[in-house]
């Protein structure tokens, strides 16, 4: 019997969608106002879900407090109120699109979750724009 537990989190961050190897005109044509040289920001919402067997001793799939601590350490402390392009090492050479951000977050959390659990991360960049990554 497998069950999924989920934890919501939130962080605010600035970024710029920009490829260093493209001209300003190429970047502007593809990324539009998201290519603003002075950056722009989002209030990101995050949902992290872990699926696994219920432990017969605890009744938990995983202690949600443990999951909350992982999210705080791996995501909130490292991304909140940061400029993703300038302050987060993973984005020094990786364009911080929502798609790339969700994969980076998934990889950071995956290292801390037992292999027998499935992990899914949903990242809302705006209330209407979101991405999902399951490690597939």
Automatic annotation (TrEMBL):
Pathway where it operates: Purine metabolism; 7-cyano-7-deazaguanine biosynthesis
Source organism superkingdom: Bacteria
Record-linked Gene3D superfamilies: 6-pyruvoyl tetrahydropterin synthase/QueD (3.30.479.10)
Residues bound to Zn(2+): 15, 40, 42
Names of the cofactor(s): Zn(2+)
Active-site feature positions: 34 (proton acceptor), 81 (charge relay system), 125 (charge relay system)
MF terms (GO), sorted A to Z: 6-carboxytetrahydropterin synthase activity; metal ion binding
Coiled-coil portions: none
EC number(s) on file: 4.-.-.-
UniProt-listed GO biological process terms: tRNA queuosine(34) biosynthetic process
Co-factor: note: Binds 1 zinc ion per subunit.
Catalytic activity of the protein: 7,8-dihydroneopterin 3'-triphosphate + H2O = 6-carboxy-5,6,7,8-tetrahydropterin + triphosphate + acetaldehyde + 2 H(+)
Keywords tagged on the record: Lyase, Metal-binding, Queuosine biosynthesis, Zinc
Cleaved signal peptide residues: none
Any Pfam family the entry gives: PTPS
Keyword Lyase: yes
Protein family: Belongs to the PTPS family. QueD subfamily.
Name of protein: 6-carboxy-5,6,7,8-tetrahydropterin synthase
Record organism: Flavobacterium bomense
């Amino acid at each position: 019997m497998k069950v999924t537990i989920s934890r919501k989190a939130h962080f605010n961050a600035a970024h710029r969608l920009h490829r260093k190897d493209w001209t300003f005109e190429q970047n502007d044509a593809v990324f539009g106002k998201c290519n603003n040289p002075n950056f722009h920001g989002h209030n990101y919402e995050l949902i992290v879900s872990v699926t696994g067997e219920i432990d017969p001793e605890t009744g938990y799939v995983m202690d949600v407090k443990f999951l909350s601590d992982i999210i705080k350490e791996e995501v909130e402390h490292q991304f909140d109120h940061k400029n993703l392009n300038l302050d987060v090492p993973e984005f020094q050479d990786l364009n911080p699109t929502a798609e790339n951000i969700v994969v980076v977050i998934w990889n950071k959390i995956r290292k801390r979750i037992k292999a027998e659990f499935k992990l899914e991360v949903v990242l809302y960049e705006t209330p209407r724009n979101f991405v999902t990554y399951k490690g597939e």
